[in-house]
Amino acid sequence: MTQDKSQQQLQVDFQQMVDEFFTVQCRYQSAIREIQTKLEILDDEFQMRHKRNPIHHMQSRMKSIQSMMEKLARKNAQRNIASAVENLTDIAGIRVICSYLQDVYTVAELLTRQDDIHVLKVRDYIKQPKANGYRSLHLVVEIPVFLSEGRVMVPVEIQIRTIAMDFWASLEHSLRYKAPGNIPEEISEELLQTASDIAILDQRMQTIHDKVDALEGNE
């Protein structure tokens, strides 16, 4: 009987957490829309000025309740929605995929110099890749969202990377998901070498692009 009550309480607690999540979900979704709109406008203006789009495509996501609770546990923080809002800056996320390496930094600069964007954190995993070879530019920014109860500053994590970086990251994640903790060292080394090869390819494509730009400038 006690076990039944305990199970019922767990269900009640989880439902309460779900209800609290839906209460704050709106602000994070609104923040994602705000950032995406800004990026779309910047991309459109860049296309008008330079006859090409620096952004190839974008993806957005919201962390699940389970993912938030797991991250709070790793941080030794209380596992509830209020704690997630206080301690996590990546509940809302946007991935921006760019055609060329320099586009990554151009998009980041154009976005972050807007006066209603407050930069909280920058991690440049392109200049300083992770140990496994992962490359991407990570920004955590705050943006104002205007709700019925007033103005709320909401954090959004933005990952900006090239098509090649995204290709590597997606497949590397898929491979590690299939065999968590069981990837042999030799395969990890191959993945690291592939990441280095892709970085060289990105730089070569940037050089070719710059040469073509120079040719067009001389016409």
Could you walk me through the main structural features you see in this protein, from its secondary elements to its overall organization?
- With 219 residues, the chain is α+β, with helices and mostly antiparallel strands.
- It has one domain: Beta Polymerase, domain 2 (2-Layer Sandwich), CATH 3.30.460.
- Helices cover 58% and strands 21% of the residues.
- It has a 5-stranded mixed β-sheet with strand order 1-2-5-4-3.
- Helix 2 crosses helix 3 and helix 5 runs antiparallel to helix 6.
- It is flat, with a radius of gyration of 21 Å.
- It starts with a helix and ends with a helix.
Describe, in short, the structure shown.
This protein has helices spanning 2-50, 65-74, 81-87, 101-112, 163-178, 185-218; strands at residues 55-62, 92-98, 118-124, 137-147, 150-162.
Mean pLDDT: 90
CATH superfamily, by name, is: Beta Polymerase, domain 2
How do the helices and strands follow one another from N- to C-terminus? HEHHEHEEEHH
- Gross morphology: flat
Indicate the structural class. alpha+beta
CATH topology: Beta Polymerase, domain 2
Helical proportion, percent range:
55-70%
Low-confidence stretches: none
Oligomer: single chain
What is the overall number of helices?
Answer: 6
Widest beta sheet: strand line-up: 1-2-5-4-3
- Largest sheet: number of strands, sense, barrel closure: 5 strands, mixed
What is the CATH class?
Answer: Alpha Beta
Span between termini: 84 Å
Give the number of DSSP strands. Answer: 5
Radius of gyration: 21 Å
